[in-house]
């Protein structure tokens, strides 16, 4: 009750202060001679101190007492701090990454007023003319920015690497409020289609890393794809980028066609249905997001009606990743899994420390009894014990936050995906860590504190110690099974046959001389490539493809039957006849492509596509619609995992026509050198690179493999914690029952029986924990199966090895305590205590 | 405030509780009552009165409410709670015992 009044006071202390001041004021007014009244401020301060001071004082007392007692037990303190500190560290690290990737708004001025503009129907997107129309007509948005992500070559990058840049409207820096380190942003006249200016702004990091932070950079020229652009400014160091690795420099839209000869200038700048630019805007002062959204929707409809385009609606969101349409669905399952894993680790650590505290409280029984008999109330002692937990939890919290400073970057580097920017905890992360510490303190501290101060020690059937032990076992089993499933799944997936030849096949890709390959030249290069390769080797020993299998680049079309207008999403691949030969994909019916098929409507489909229209089997010769074009199926090929490793999509193949892109060449690895020779005879400036196809396969396993590494790390930590926890419990049992063991030994019990006594007491808890752990792991495994490729929920190897590993850990944990139990000397044990 | 004699330590709470036993009163009223009843011997300054009242509030022995004073000004009235009455009885008994003991020593 007193505590309640204290809380009420703390909550309303301003009101109380005012009451007090007014009251004393009244007192003075009533008094005949105010001078006799003494110091008014002092009176107020003393009155206030009545509430706070004794409380503060006793808390301080508890803290001092705790620190002293923790220092006296350095072993306990170390184990508890490390266990909890690492668990909080893992959680905080995870949250740091999540916070940085998903919850942080763009690093721009006043980001709460910046919105991203999405089409309501996500398939569509904005063209520059639509963006310019919206920008010109809107009254509720003070500035609208259109951008597009491109890659160009500055000349010093390695194969396939380019400088990632944003093509933007001239108002980019003004609207987002990005200041300049040196120079200026773009001027409106530099973004006019009729008079394109070859100007560029560098990002701070790019300027520092590649130009040595040259302060006189403004006015200098850099070659982008061999074309000279003049640098007009460097963006502020505070602008770390919307996506840091994607923004090295900016050029205005008007200059874009100069860099991309494969597109005609009119396509990017003036085609009303060009797709898809990114759009962002700043709300005018006092305008709500929904009002602006309604306005833009009307304007967009006007524009699209005028150009006879289907309306796509408008949706405005904030700038954090999490707010993007679809982002939650996309990342929540994976985030959820990791969150589950680190939470389990946290739970495990809490159970561990809880058990340590139970053992410690048992050892302090006499101390607690003495304090009670000296007049301390139970609540007072519970509070003191909780202070101990809180001090431990706060220490662990400090340790955890320190860990979170380097762990995310270290782990990212370890799994081979270095973070594009430094991940460091911010204030939100700090609050999260403190909340964890608080939860930890209550969850591991409260129960032991209540139990150890209970007046008479009740002999419950399930002592707290056993419950905690079972929890530890169950949680670590769940974590270990999760890790085991991932690791074993990856092993299997690596050995699995994707349905096409991988071993001994190489993928050759080309890096064209920047900027010089426009449509005619591309077509000529492709024609010569096919011809010269046919001369150099048999037509069946090389395959051209727009993308190699498992490249991650799949273009999706919709297919339907004229008589059955229910479309099916299908993956498109553009290949030459040799593709099926080199990859040993059998053609089950019909024929392969022939030279005459270039540009014709002949397609091959895989078995899955042939089965995709429920009511009828598709046969060779069938005509189907793909997009708006009628196609004729001339062959059916065997299903392969060519688009992704975890499932077979319906796929259709069309003949590679060599108009819009430079192909990849698939050959036996022994022929790879020959291709380079052929290509450098066509154009010596073209660079070639040969990589084993196995690399692509491995790359598609990358996410699962990173997951396996992290899960393995957490699993190992869980195993260590569980082992330490079990060892602690065993040791505690031996200590508690030394006398009993001594008597039994004196009566002729053999050491083996003593050991059984020790282990038997905890074995039920361990068995319960194991069963709960195995059962609870199953739904988790099910969840993992959907998110991480290669995991199968019923993997006997994983389950069995977890059971074995756990048995080994149990043995290791019981070794020292059992040994001690078997060596109990009856005479000294009876004198003990 | 060296002119007025010190109130015996620990007795101020008792005196306030006793004063409030007669009925709700504001801070000034309490001080005034103590002064008049004791024939000007007990002069309680605000720097000891208000901390004491806060202490009684914290312990739940009194309740405070805003009301109108006799001259129609806003004043904070303190009322004895049930716990306060018990406390009064307890303190009174302790005080009697203590005074008795002291008198025995002084006699």
Describe the structure.
The complex is a heterodimer of chains A (833) and B (107). With 833 residues, chain A is α+β, with helices and mostly antiparallel strands. Chain A has 25 helices and 21 strands. In chain A, strands 1, 2, 3, 4, 5, 6, 7, 8, 9 and 10 form a ten-stranded mixed beta sheet that branches. Chain A has a six-stranded mixed beta barrel with strand order 13-14-19-16-18-17. A four-stranded antiparallel beta sheet of chain A has the order 12-20-11-21. Chain B is α+β, with helices and mostly antiparallel strands and 107 residues long. Chain B is built from four helices and three strands. Chain B has a three-stranded antiparallel beta sheet with strand order 1-3-2. In chain B, helix 1 crosses helix 4 (82-106). Chain B is globular. The model of chain B has no long low-confidence stretch (mean pLDDT 85).
DSSP strand (E) fraction of chain A?
15-25%
Tally of DSSP β-strands of chain B: 3
The stretches of 5 or more residues of chain A where confidence is low (pLDDT under 50) are: none
Straight-line distance between termini of chain A: 40 Å
Q: Can you tell me the overall shape of chain B?
A: globular
Please identify which CATH superfamily of chain B we are dealing with: Winged helix-like DNA-binding domain superfamily/Winged helix DNA-binding domain
Categorize the overall geometry of chain A.
Answer: globular
Name the beta content range of chain B. Answer: 5-15%
Structural class of chain A: alpha+beta
Work out the largest interface and the residue count of each chain: A-B, 30 and 27 residues
How big is the Rg of chain B?
15 Å
Average residue pLDDT of chain A? 82
Count the E strands of chain A: 21
The CATH architecture assignment of chain B turns out to be: Orthogonal Bundle
What is the CATH class designation of chain B? Mainly Alpha
- Over all CA atoms, what is the radius of gyration of chain A? 35 Å
């Amino acid at each position: 009750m007193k505590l309640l009044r204290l809380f009420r006071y703390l909550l309303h202390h301003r009101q109380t202060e005012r009451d007090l001041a007014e009251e004393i004021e009244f007192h003075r007014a009533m008094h005949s001679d105010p001078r006799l009244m003494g110091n008014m401020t002092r009176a107020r301060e003393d009155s206030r101190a009545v509430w706070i001071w004794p409380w503060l004082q006793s808390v301080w007392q508890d803290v001092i007492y705790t620190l002293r007692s923790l220092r006296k037990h350095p072993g306990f303190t170390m184990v508890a701090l490390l266990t909890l500190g690492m668990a909080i560290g893992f959680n905080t690290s995870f949250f740091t990454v999540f916070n940085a990737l998903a919850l942080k708004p763009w690093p721009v001025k006043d980001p709460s007023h910046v919105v991203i503009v999405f089409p309501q129907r996500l398939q569509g997107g904005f063209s520059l003319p639509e963006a310019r129309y919206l920008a010109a007509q809107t009254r509720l948005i003070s500035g609208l920015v259109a951008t597009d992500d491109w890659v160009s070559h500055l000349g010093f990058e390695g194969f396939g690497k380019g400088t990632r840049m944003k093509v933007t409207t001239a108002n980019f820096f003004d609207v987002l409020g990005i200041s300049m380190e040196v120079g200026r942003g773009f001027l409106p006249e530099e973004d006019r289609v009729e008079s394109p200016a070859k100007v560029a702004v560098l990002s701070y990091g790019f300027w520092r890393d590649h130009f040595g932070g040259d302060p006189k950079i403004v006015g200098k020229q850099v070659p982008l794809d061999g074309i000279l652009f003049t640098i007009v400014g460097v963006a502020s160091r505070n602008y770390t980028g919307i996506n840091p690795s994607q923004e090295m420099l900016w050029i205005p839209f008007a200059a874009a066609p100069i860099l991309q000869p494969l597109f005609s200038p009119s396509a990017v700048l003036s085609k009303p249905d060009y797709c898809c630019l990114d759009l962002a805007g700043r709300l005018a002062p006092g305008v709500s997001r929904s009002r602006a959204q309604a306005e833009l929707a009307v304007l967009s409809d006007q524009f699209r009606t005028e150009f006879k385009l289907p309306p796509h609606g408008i949706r405005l969101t904030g700038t954090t990743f999490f707010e993007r349409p679809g982002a939650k669905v996309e990342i929540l399952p994976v985030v959820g899994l990791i969150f589950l894993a680190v939470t389990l680790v946290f739970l495990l650590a809490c159970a561990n420390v809880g058990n340590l505290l139970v053992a410690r409280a048992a050892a302090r029984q006499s101390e607690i009894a003495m304090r009670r008999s000296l007049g301390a109330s139970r609540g007072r002692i519970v509070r003191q014990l909780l202070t101990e937990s809180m001090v431990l939890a706060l220490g662990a919290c400090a340790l955890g936050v320190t860990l979170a400073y380097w762990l995310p970057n270290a782990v990212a580097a370890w799994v081979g995906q270095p973070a594009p920017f430094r991940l460091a905890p911010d204030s939100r992360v700090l609050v999260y860590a403190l909340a964890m510490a608080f939860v930890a303190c209550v969850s591991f501290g409260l129960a032991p504190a209540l139990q150890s101060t209970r007046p008479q020690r009740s002999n419950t059937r399930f002592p707290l110690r056993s419950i905690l032990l079972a929890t530890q076992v169950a949680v670590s089993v769940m974590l270990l099974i999760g890790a085991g499933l991932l690791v074993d799944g990856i092993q299997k997936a690596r050995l699995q046959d994707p349905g096409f030849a991988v071993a001994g096949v190489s993928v050759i890709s080309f890096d064209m001389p920047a900027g010089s390959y426009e449509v005619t030249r591309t077509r000529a290069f492709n024609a010569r490539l096919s011809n010269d390769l046919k001369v150099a080797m048999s037509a069946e020993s090389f395959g051209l493809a727009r993308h190699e299998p498992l490249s991650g680049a799949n273009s999706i079309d919709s297919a339907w039957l004229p008589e059955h207008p229910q479309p099916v999403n299908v993956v498109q691949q553009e290949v030459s006849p040799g593709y099926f030969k080199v990859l040993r994909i059998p053609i089950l019916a019909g024929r392969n492509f022939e030279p005459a098929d270039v540009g014709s409507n002949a397609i091959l489909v895989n078995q899955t596509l042939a089965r995709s229209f429920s009511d009828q089997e598709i046969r060779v010769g069938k005509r189907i619609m793909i997009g708006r074009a009628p196609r004729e199926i001339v062959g059916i090929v065997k299903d392969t995992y060519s688009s992704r490793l975890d499932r077979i999509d319906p796929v259709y193949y069309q003949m590679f026509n060599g108009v819009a892109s430079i192909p990849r060449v698939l050959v036996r690895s022994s022929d790879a050198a020959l291709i380079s020779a052929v290509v450098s005879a066509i154009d010596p400036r073209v660079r070639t690179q040969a990589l084993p196809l196995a690399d692509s396969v491995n790359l598609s396993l990358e996410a699962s493999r990173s997951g396996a590494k992290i899960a393995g790390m957490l699993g190992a930590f869980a195993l260590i914690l569980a082992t330490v926890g079990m060892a602690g419990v065993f040791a505690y049992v031996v200590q508690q029952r030394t006398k009993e063991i001594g008597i039994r030994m004196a009566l002729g019990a053999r050491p083996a029986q003593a050991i059984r006594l020790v282990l038997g007491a905890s074995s039920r808890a361990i068995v319960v924990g194991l069963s709960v752990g195995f059962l609870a792991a199953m739904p988790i495994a099910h969840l993992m199966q959907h998110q991480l490729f290669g995991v199968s929920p019923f993997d006997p190897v994983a389950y069995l090895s977890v059971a074995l590993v756990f048995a080994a850990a149990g043995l290791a944990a019981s070794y020292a305590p059992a040994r001690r139990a078997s060596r109990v000397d009856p005479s000294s044990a009876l004198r003990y205590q | 405030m060296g002119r007025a004699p010190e109130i015996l330590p620990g007795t101020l709470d008792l005196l306030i509780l006793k004063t409030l036993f007669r009925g709700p009163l504001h801070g000034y009223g309490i001080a005034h009552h103590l002064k008049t009843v004791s024939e000007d011997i007990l002069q309680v300054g605000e720097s000891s009165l208000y901390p004491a009242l806060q202490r009684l509030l914290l312990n739940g022995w009194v309740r405070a409410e805003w009301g109108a004073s006799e001259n129609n000004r806003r004043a904070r009235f303190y009322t004895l709670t049930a716990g306060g009455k018990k406390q009064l009885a307890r303190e009174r008994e302790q005080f009697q015992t203590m005074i008795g003991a002291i008198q025995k020593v002084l006699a």
